[in-house]
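Fold this sequence, please.
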Amino acid sequence: MSRPPVSTERMALTSSGHVRYPLKTPYRDGTTHVVIEPLDFMARLAALVPPPRMHLTRYHGVFAPHSKLRAAVTPAHRGMGAAQSLPAADVAKPSTLRHGAMSWARRLKRVFGIEIEDCARCGGKLRILASIEEPEVIATILSHLKSTAPEEYSAELPLGARAPPGQARLL
C-alpha cells in the first residue's frame, strides 16, 4: 500500500482554526511549519487526487502507447507497429487464448471455495438468472424455502450474503 501524501500525526489545528503542518526538513529560507486555512488545505489535498480512469504511470519513448517501436520491445508484442514492425516469423503466437474478466461465480469459488456453478444434487451446470438485493424479498424467499423444503434439504441457509456490487442480473 502506498504512503499517504500527508502525515496525519503531524497535522494540528491552531487556536484560530488554521491547519498547522510541521515540515520534515526546513526549507532553505528557514521555514519549519506551514500554516494554512482549512479550505485551502482541502483544495491542495484534492489537487493530489488523480481524475477518474486516468493512468497513474505514463510511459514515454518506445514504451509510449503510440510508439511504432513498442511492439518490438514489449514481451506481449502489442502496440502501434505490431503488425508491420515485426516479421510474422519473429512474433510468437500465444499458446492459450486470452481470457476475459472472471465471472462472479468463479471469484466466489476461487476466494471462498463456494461452488455455485454445479448442482449439489445432480452435478449438472447451474446458471445464475438474477441477483436479488432487497432484504425483504430475500427474507420472504428464505422463509418460503424453509416451510416447503423436505427435512433433508432444510439446512441453514447463509444470511448476510450479498450480490456483486452494481450487477442486478447475471447470466
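The mean pLDDT is 78. Helices lie at 38-47, 70-73, 82-85, 104-112, 135-148.
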